[in-house]
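#onboarding

Welcome to the new folks! Below is a worked example of what a typical request in this channel looks like: someone posts a single protein sequence, and someone else replies with the predicted structure as tokens. Don't worry about understanding the tokens yet, we'll cover that in week two.

Example request:
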Amino acid sequence: MDVPSPLIPPRRPVTSAPFLPTSREEMARLGWEACDVILVTGDAYVDHPSFGMALIGRLLEAHGYRVGILSQPDWHSAEPFRALGRPRLFFGITAGNMDSMINRYTADRKPRSDDAYTPDAAPNRRPDRAVVVYAQRAREAFPDAHIVIGSIEASLRRIAHYDYWSDKVRRSVLPDAKADLLVFGNAERAVVDLTQRLDRGEAIETIRDLRGTAFMVKRGWRPGEDWAELDSTTVDTPGGVDAHPDPYSMEPAAAAPRSAGGAVAIRIVPAAQRVAARRAAREHTVVRLPAFEAVKDDPVLYAHASRTFHLESNPGNARALVQGHGDRDVWLNRPPVPLTTAEMDFIYGLPYARGPHPGYGGARIPAWDMIKFSVNIMRGCFGGCTFCSITEHEGRIIQSRSQGSILREIEEIRDKTAGFAGHITDLGGPTANMYHMACKDPKIEAACRRLSCVYPGICENLGTDHGPLTELYRQARRLPGVKRITIGSGLRYDLAVRDPEYVKELVTHHVSGLLKIAPEHTEDGPLSLMMKPGIGSYERFKAMFERFSREAGKKQHLVPYFIAAHPGTRDEDMLNLALWLKRSSFRPDQVQTFLPTPMALATAMWHSGRNPLRRVSRGGEGVAVVRGGRQRMLHKAFLRYHDPANWGLLRRALREMGRADLIGNGPNQLIPRWRPGVAGDEAPEERGTDRRAGPARAWDGGSGRKPVRRRNAR
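Example response:
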């Protein structure tokens, strides 16, 4: 018999608000005098499960609470934070669906000109470090109100972290926000439990046992007398370590008595008893990370703390973490337990209005336009790519919805979403093809401490059956009114090649002509630090893709994505990638330069110059880091080798690298010796770019033919 989930209420309210109120007038129309919870967000309010404030708001509403929304409040004073009054239970503060710094700035630290989560894409509608600013303003508006922070921004800044935009290690967001509690990861259970306990009259400073929460405590605080503390440097130190005891072995008892014959007396400890004892010990152990004051000035200690943090991320075996900040500690409880399929179905089946708040009128919200005809079918990612923060936020364990739940949402899109013409633009999530994948043995999953299930190879214990996903595609296509379903989420091709039937289904029915895919690089050095598969996996998938496209009579193409300037990438690696791109006749239009995001392992590499995928020591393995602006530009230029604006920079770099043989107009050379339209004329290298260069089409792409000489060339 299934145990009832506390996330799913036994009875739901008879009615729900058309939209959660955003003003006193809307509250009055609902007959409310006050809100129980007020959610503050840096995004426009779109009542859809892809927007965090709507999902949490509707979930609390289903449990009988009155929830208001403060969307993109003006942070320059506290007055906008008084718009809905004082919440009876707490303010829930979020930056929105993105970290506010990533939302507002490019990888070159330049302000973005638009914001996809704002009406009409208007910029500057949220502050830098929005969680901190919003929390401080809410506290100013109502000094006695409880402040709970969450969202991906708070989740990825819950301990001391390197901040790319200020180029320094910043302390946890908790003391800066002066929040009572931080919720991280999949926060639904923690938020519902917290709300109910506050509603029953518990003091927020006594709620210290919720998984997926963090809070400030006095130095040395413990939840109970039976708790033990381990220093992280004793948990993961350079050099040899004792082998882990086998829980199924027979061991001599300590100070074991000897029999008359001199033999050691052996006692058999039942395996289940030993495993239970070890589990109990882990559940009452906290690992102390190096303090903020230590890691902010010591890159090696920072890399060590990052490695320890990631090793303690599996909810099945993770221990609590604690990190000193001055005379206080930031305490992190164990990560949240993944949601069940029934819980996922309940959350995504709540009565969302499935559209922007009517107060925006006809304003266009680009993020809504992008997802309004798509369906999120799962959460989490076991890929563990070091440059990505999905694992740190959603976890490695896949949480999938049922087929029935997904089909019902497609029907809701068909029946309720304005402008639907029969095209579902995505059935996906963090990845396209991890739906219902899991470890074959729950006991192995609970004990595992690997950072990735698919690197350096796909784990033998990982179930990679694409059957449920293939059947979902087929059932979705059969729905009346659905004319087409395409897949927009990134495909994990090393998994896909294991199931040719899935690849054939995908290629035959669900590609819009272009399928995005992310090999990220071709060279083993950078790929190993990204924890990505070798380029051979991509080539195998490409061959399958092309074969099934031909069989379907379709002309379709892969759109590979690559990263420039990732830690561990040498100039020679980027050159080899550029040569591979040219041999493959591929010219990327958009390229991604590595952006160090809070908490990611690649960010620890960037900041420390060490590799936290292995044990960190001062004399250990170093990682080359691309920091200088010119070198980052060069790496990006290699990806766009075909752009005349980059040829001057590339010519100079190739000569410095001793590869001037790649400058010329032959089929095996990378860039031309002359500028288009000026036959035989070399661009001045000191300019760095060919400013007078003509359009890219003027170059023959390496066929060996000279460009046409123009009559007006000077």
